[in-house]
Amino acid sequence: MADIARLAGVSVSTVSRALNGSSLVNAETRERVAELARSLNYSINLSAQNLRLQKNRTVAVVLPFEAESRQHISDPFFLALIGSIADALTDQGYDMLLSRVDAEHLDLAAQFYDSGKAIGVLMIGQWRHHDQLNALAARQLPLVVWGGALPRQLYCSIGGDNIAGGQLATTHLLARGCRRIAFLGDAQLPEVWLRREGYSQALRQAGLQADPALELALSFEPAAARAAIARWLPAAPGFDAIFACSDLLALQAIQLLRASGQRVPEDIAVVGFDDMPLAAYCDPPLTTVHQPVAEAGAELVASLMAQLSGEKALPRTLDVQLVVRASAP
Amino acid sequence: MADIARLAGVSVSTVSRALNGSSLVNAETRERVAELARSLNYSINLSAQNLRLQKNRTVAVVLPFEAESRQHISDPFFLALIGSIADALTDQGYDMLLSRVDAEHLDLAAQFYDSGKAIGVLMIGQWRHHDQLNALAARQLPLVVWGGALPRQLYCSIGGDNIAGGQLATTHLLARGCRRIAFLGDAQLPEVWLRREGYSQALRQAGLQADPALELALSFEPAAARAAIARWLPAAPGFDAIFACSDLLALQAIQLLRASGQRVPEDIAVVGFDDMPLAAYCDPPLTTVHQPVAEAGAELVASLMAQLSGEKALPRTLDVQLVVRASAP
DNA sequence: ATGAAAGCGCTAACAC
DNA sequence: GTGTTAGCGCTTTCAT
């Protein structure tokens, strides 16, 4: 900036003003400065600007990982959500800092805020640490979490309607005549827990009861999930349907069922969750609970912005719909 | 930091040294300072640190978008690549700034570097602006591009072996007895152009010639691509196979072929490109050219690091393989 | 309409 | 081992 000032024959203050479009500066001077900046490929140093202004336009998006498996990002739904957030942030003129933290230490995400790198945090999922997220919110960290609305929750969450989703899926299977519906998913995760609630409620409404033997708790991590399903299948009690807590899980289950000689949906009907981008193109096309991904990004961003402007951002639940395809017609 | 200094009864320099683990500072003092920082949720202000040190640990990852369609990020392959890069960057202790720029103005990506936000740029794809990328490289911008190796290229690119991929796909179809192989993809994009080169070469080696009437130029954007294929199909000259330049395109084509009463692979065999994460689960499972996504992220990051440490990073081509599945057995 | 100067939070000589 | 001080590049009073 000093260079430009020298070349333009003005002071740095004037250059600063010119570059920021201040009306106090002579139009001609402003043009000359702008021209110079362009020809020098000059851009305002944002570290300096942020330091001076004590603000920035960066939002941290945190995608936790499970340390044991050190899994790579792979779930198409999460990836699509990231894409959706990136678009929403771009639309609002914000930068997106994408990072991963250990799912056991979600509180590490505060670093991005404490160090002034980001003005707030968008956390993808609650994982097993509702408590840590509450602690962050208690510290006034601007935070919005993709996940379920839980009791005694201090932070703002946005998520699909997991209970309704679980009900829709289960009710659909019951209506098809299924009576023994297996549940696949790790209910330690709040979202899965809520989906199982919906599942249980739907069963109860049909005069049935959830059979714990029909529940398989497994991680979202594809390889581990696959192994767990493969171990479980041979010993599992009889069932005529599966409600899987993600489309990826549903796909794995279908593949293993087929490998063991069962047909989907003729022998076993399968319903997934998420309606990931390719769900309609799978073999068989998945019946699944649609979560509004595109809307999700915009909602997360909007809530964070609301919080930053002092409003109290309340948890929100987005409508989900059952999309019926061939895996459970 | 001043607060901590006061509370610890030392000067800010000592605090700075302590927080940075300098060995010059008394162990006891260091511990006291660290403790204080922890209890205050204090983190070094990175804007100030970056300003002072004239460096940072952030890499900009740029995913261009086509302005007309203002398309949202959706291609599973690109998303998977983003995930892979995020992991590689995390491993190396770098932050990832994910952003989107107009595909017609790739040079805007220089902003991130010029403004000191990032130490370098990872660009996803060359789009139609090899020239702009060359200009960026000429300006010494630390840059690595995911894409094809082109003649007269000043920048470092990393990409799948597109020519070999096109050959593998085409040769496979020829070996199946296909003789009229349609080509789907926009050859204005360098990667697609190279894939078409491979396709033409394979045809020539079999004593055949590429028929321009069998080529459909279309965008990667799913909805537009779908419409283009739908328009093209009824009028298209006879063909017995399709080589599509992405799995997404292949999937769209298959769906439309089926809708018009054709069977895949019995009537028309289809080969895709990318081997996106769910390619094996599609209906039918896709025969496709596998690009090494996980490796890709690590390679891109490694090349950028090499460049930053003064080495001359040369373009690299990663091996691809044909994965034979049901869409073209 | 423009300039001079202070200060954002930090680090690194340079003293001691 | 610790303190003093200058300065990174910017914005913004306060003068003029």
Task: Give a structural overview.
Two copies of one chain form a homodimer. The first copy, chain A, has helices at 2-8, 12-19, 27-39, 46-53, 76-91, 110-114, 130-138, 162-175, 190-205, 222-235, 247-259, 293-308; strands spanning 58-62, 95-99, 121-124, 143-146, 156-160, 181-184, 215-216, 241-244, 269-274, 287-290, 316-318, 321-323. In chain A, the strands form two sheets. Chain A has a six-stranded parallel beta sheet, sandwiched between helices. Chain A is α/β, with parallel strands linked by helices and 329 residues long. In chain A, helix 1 (2-8) crosses helix 3 (27-39), helix 8 runs parallel beside helix 9 and helix 10 packs across helix 11 (247-259). Chain A has three domains: 2-44, no CATH class; 58-159 and 293-318, Response regulator (Rossmann fold); 162-290, 3-Layer(aba) Sandwich (Rossmann fold). Chain A contains twelve helices and twelve strands. At the A-B interface, helix 4, helix 5, strand 2 and helix 6 of A face helix 4, helix 5, strand 2 and helix 6 of B. Strand 2 of chain A pairs antiparallel with strand 2 of chain B. The structure holds a DNA duplex (16 and 16 nucleotides).
Secondary structure elements and pairings:
The structure is a homodimer of 329-residue chains.
Chain A: H1 2-8, H2 12-19, H3 27-39, H4 46-53, E1 58-62, H5 76-91, E2 95-99, H6 110-114, E3 121-124, H7 130-138, E4 143-146, E5 156-160, H8 162-175, E6 181-184, H9 190-205, E7 215-216, H10 222-235, E8 241-244, H11 247-259, E9 269-274, E10 287-290, H12 293-308, E11 316-318, E12 321-323
Helix pairs in contact in A: 1-2, 1-3, 2-3, 5-12, 8-9, 10-11
The first copy, chain A, binds a DNA duplex (16 and 16 nucleotides) through helix 2 and helix 4.
